[in-house]
Design a protein that fits this description.
17 helices, Cyt_P450, Cytochrome P450, binds protoporphyrin IX containing FE, Cytochrome p450, Cyt_P450_E_grp-I, Cyt_P450_sf, 449 residues
């Protein structure tokens, strides 16, 4: 179907509106750090409420242009479209990777600093093989991974060490204490107990991720990347029992698989899972009635058996809905695509801003409240795109492992204890949840129940 305006007849934002999207959406997200967060910038974005402006900006465009998709006024060589309609979001996610490829240009430039052959930035047969491998290792169809009981043991050991430390520090728990514990859990779950104290590996990856934040603007750390992959290979060869490395050693591979380019994603993506857990703890501390539900769930289950803790998982999902750690979901069209309003050119970067959908107060009654029931009765929001883990065939294959480990961590921290936010006014159940919650300066006073 030939159409004759700038981009077929899809509406196109003016230059001023495009610059406003850059200022309200791209700048704050790039400043916070797309691949690794910059704590100072997170603090500034929280204080200025910039994430709310990004949602408002897209709402205004939606009110002016209708469902879109809305082409931005970018150079012809880099077409870019905003998805403004829930059905369009579902279409893009469901029709991944053809014609909406996960291997989007900006993402490729960011990830090539440490995992250039990762599934997310691959296409065709290579992507298919890497996706298959990740689904197999992470058992993406199972709510509880086969190694769940072992992961539960790791969480129990590390949480109990953390809580002893907290007691020695007059009941104070802050981000730096939690982060050290979380990183140990992550290294043990992904690579095995011998990696528990390999902080150097985490630091190497952090440096590579920092370069990833700058995408094509950073020349890269080639030698460091080689050294990091070499160190990772040692763990993968060892394939320690009880860790994902053992699953990797067992999984079938071929020349396309490139396991050592998939595993950095496991390590790196567990990082936002830690932030999410800490924010979920803050949500619970601020909502005593929901904490009571969590405590009931904890007493009803044997945590050693890695139960599926539905309520705590819903709290983690709420933390991710309110403050998604992957706010920008990007796709790139592999061919021209047809929409009700016109044609989108091939090689367009298609942007889904998760908070725009997650916090749409025009349609969702509880958009800005902490409402775990949203996930316990998913029928309530119908097909509305709730996409903290993306969706469709590109959905995060690690989501169940994440929900398992984070809910078990919350259960162990909450068991027999009470948490008060310091200061207690940081979040209030009587007020809308803030556009961003800076995890780096969260602190709790922990007491026995
Ligand atoms: C809070 C934690 C996490 C969140 C919010 C999250 C979210 C996401 C999202 C949104 C994507 C799709 C990105 C896109 O399409 O551009 C993705 C992809 C992926 N995630 Fe996660 N993730 C998390 C943790 C993990 C963990 C811990 C693992 C592994 C242990 C993992 C493994 C993967 C893999 C392998 C992909 C690539 C999938 C593909 O393209 O085939 N994720 N994740």
């Amino acid at each position: 179907m030939a159409r004759d305006s700038v981009h077929g007849s899809l509406p196109t934002a003016t230059l001023g509106e495009t610059l406003a999207v850059v200022g309200n959406v791209f700048v704050p997200n790039i400043a916070k750090g797309v691949i690794i967060r910059r704590p100072m910038a997170v603090g500034v974005v929280e204080k200025l409420g910039l994430d709310k402006r990004s949602i408002r900006r897209l709402q205004k465009l939606n009110e002016k242009y209708g469902p879109g998709p809305l082409m931005l006024n970018t150079p012809k060589s880099k077409p870019m479209a905003l998805v403004l309609d829930p059905d369009h979001a579902n279409r893009v996610l469901n029709e991944t990777p053809e014609p909406f490829a996960t291997a989007e240009w900006a993402k490729q430039k960011a990830l090539e600093h440490f995992e250039p052959d990762m599934a997310l930035v691959s296409h065709g047969p290579e992507r298919a093989e890497r996706r298959r491998f990740n689904e197999e290792v992470l058992q993406s169809g199972c709510p509880v991974h086969g190694l769940g009981a072992r992961f539960a043991q790791v969480v129990e050991q590390e949480a109990s060490e953390l809580l002893t430390f907290v007691e020695r520090h007059h009941g104070k728990l802050d981000w730096s204490m939690f982060e050290a514990t979380w990183n140990r859990v992550v290294r043990r779950v992904v690579l095995g107990d011998t990696a528990r104290d390999d902080r150097a590996l985490t630091e190497m990856l952090e440096k590579l991720r920092s370069a990833g934040n700058w995408a094509f603007l950073h020349p890269g750390h080639d030698r460091l990347q080689d050294a990091f992959h070499e160190r990772l290979r040692t763990y993968l060869k060892r394939g320690e029992a009880g860790s994902l490395a053992a699953e990797i050693a067992r999984a079938s591979t071929n020349a396309n698989t490139q396991p050592e380019h998939q595993v950095p994603q496991y390590l790196f993506a567990f990082d936002p899972a830690g932030m999410t857990t800490f924010r979920a703890l803050a949500l619970l501390a601020a909502h005593p009635n929901q904490t009571e539900r969590a405590q009931v769930e904890i007493t009803e289950h044997d945590l050693e058996r890695a139960p599926k803790l539905d309520f705590l998982r819903a709290c983690v999902l709420e933390s991710l809905r309110l403050w998604p750690t992957t706010p920008l979901v990007l796709r790139q069209t592999t061919e021209e695509t047809e929409w009700e309003n016109g044609t989108m050119p091939a090689e367009t970067s298609v942007l889904l801003l998760a908070p725009y959908f997650h916090r749409d107060d025009r349609y969702l009654d509880d958009a800005n409240l902490f409402d775990p029931d949203l996930w316990l009765q998913p029928g309530e929001v119908g097909n509305w795109p709730m996409i903290p883990f993306s969706g469709g065939s590109g959905i995060c294959p690690g989501r169940h492992v994440v929900l398992l480990v984070t809910s078990l961590m919350l259960a162990r921290l909450l068991q027999g204890r009470e948490y008060r936010l310091e200061p207690p006014t940081r979040l209030l159940s009587s007020k809308p949840m803030p556009p961003l919650l800076n995890n780096y300066d969260l602190a709790f006073k922990v007491t026995g129940r």
